[in-house]
Design brief:
The chain is α/β, with parallel strands linked by helices. The protein has ten helices and 23 strands.
């Protein structure tokens, strides 16, 4: 796992300035503003917050009109080809896309707009907006996260999670029906910090993750190239991390166990890893860059990390101090982008996993996809990260189950992560024998962004 030192961990600790929605077109993700061939920043006319499913095709410009809660498509004729392609739902009939947009930077509007796209309504179905005070919603999101991170009683978590479910998911639940198993969430602002997996449906007594495989995508992004799904037989992997004490960072003894467990899924019959393992002294910038030049399909990093709103270098991973302890977001993006580009052709890492405390969140949702989004920006088609400091033992069990389902059982990334989270939630597995490990703290932190197939 990647253990993050949480100098500033709450969603209210803003690390970056956030331009007003009234004056900006793209959600300012430092880490997920663009994905090579996969997710790129959507800059268009109006409040362009919808992603585009490129060859699958979506680009929807949204602009507030005559009243709160009213969304209207305003695309010039030249952008017609970017409208949502119904072929996406023909080939993915069990997937729905849910947009949740807070107009929190414009005092004129006090609502959350809800738009749902699915096979029965590929052009989108709009629902009555959530008209609660946005400050109340932001506070409830913060309270929900705090309750989970502090491992407070489930009754309290269900109460707050149930209220958020009723506001954000309840309006569309009956419309989605029973034929949907994967829900793509496209939130903005504070909603990006919300652990959607733990939202509570009080009617059936289930968490949202128990019904749907979940994906969280950045508002203002384009999603493309989803029809290209690689085969995972004999693929190579790059595994890296720190287990020793480096600088002021404590040792992480489970790192080696975790990387060995992951490595078994990418080894030959003789148990030899098809790829590279960089541990401790070998986990340096130069070795990381050289290993990426071998074009691994999967990259799994397990080390310390830091989110500190007062540190301009933050967030960053900790590597072996060949020159510096810090592997900043920009450095990670540059290393991946440089190493994966040859003769002008961009190679793609299919999956980047940062089993990391808070690798998925920065301050106040402004950089909400965190280091996971960085990898996607640099060239990974999909990435898994976490929202808060995670337990080492359950992380190892969850990660192992994820790879088992993803690689051995040929599940999509989204369904594999869902099964892994349900595995911990159910109290299954060696690390989950103690009942407390079924608490959302241990499994709801994990999220997937980018390509979910």
């Amino acid at each position: 796992m990647t253990c993050f030192d949480k100098k500033s961990s709450t969603p209210t600790a803003a690390a970056l300035s956030y331009p007003s929605v009234a004056t900006t077109l793209s959600y300012p993700f430092v880490f997920a503003s663009s994905l090579a061939k996969n997710i790129t920043s959507l800059l268009g006319v109006g409040y362009s917050i919808m992603p585009q499913f490129g060859s699958i095709g979506l680009s929807l410009g949204l602009r507030k009109q005559s009243g709160p809660g009213l969304l209207k498509t305003q695309l010039p004729p030249s952008e017609e080809p970017f409208k949502f392609d119904e072929n996406f739902f023909r080939t993915n009939p069990s997937t729905a896309v849910l947009y949740l947009f807070m107009y929190d930077q414009n005092p004129e509007y006090k609502d959350v707009d809800i738009l749902l796209k699915y096979k029965g309504s590929p052009d989108g179905q709009r629902f009555q907006p959530v008209t609660r005070d946005l400050k109340l919603i932001e506070k409830e999101v913060e309270n929900f996260r705090t309750a989970i991170e502090n491992q407070e009683p489930l009754d309290k978590i269900h109460q707050i999670g149930g209220q958020l479910y009723n506001w954000l998911i309840g309006p569309v639940a009956s419309t989605i029906g029973g034929g949907i198993d994967t829900l793509i969430l496209v939130p903005n602002s504070t909603l990006h910090t919300l652990p959607f997996a733990a939202l509570w449906n009080g009617q059936n007594g289930q968490y949202l993750i128990q019904k749907y495989a979940l994906v969280v995508e950045p508002a203002g992004a384009q999603l493309t190239d989803f029809q290209t799904t690689p085969k995972y037989n004999n693929v190579s992997a790059l595994l890296g991390g720190i287990s020793k004490k480096v600088g002021n960072f404590n040792p992480l003894p489970n790192t080696i166990t975790e990387l060995n467990a992951v490595g078994r899924f990418f080894s030959n019959d003789k148990g030899e890893l098809n790829g590279t393992k960089l541990i401790n002294e070998d986990f340096t910038t130069s070795n990381l860059q050289e290993s990426l030049r071998q074009y691994p399909l999967v990259v799994h990093l397990s080390t310390h990390g830091v989110f500190d709103a007062t540190d301009k270098r933050s967030p960053y991973l900790v590597k072996y101090p060949d020159t510096d302890l810090i592997l900043s977001i920009n450095n990670l993006a540059n290393i991946m982008a440089s190493a994966l580009t040859t003769s002008g052709d961009k190679k793609l890492v299919e999956l980047l996993v940062l089993s990391a405390c808070q690798s998925a969140i920065g301050g106040n949702g402004k950089d909400a996809l965190g280091l996971a989004g960085t990898g996607v920006k640099a060239g990974a088609r999909g990435a898994v990260g976490t929202l808060w400091p995670v337990n080492e033992n359950t992380t190892q069990s969850l990660v192992t189950k994820f790879y088992e389902k993803f690689k051995n059982d040929n599940m999509t990334k989204a369904k594999a992560l869902q099964e892994a989270q349900k595995f911990i939630l159910s109290g299954s597995g060696e690390a989950s024998q103690i009942k407390k490990f079924t608490h959302p703290y241990y499994w709801a932190a994990f999220l997937l962004t980018g390509n979910w197939l």
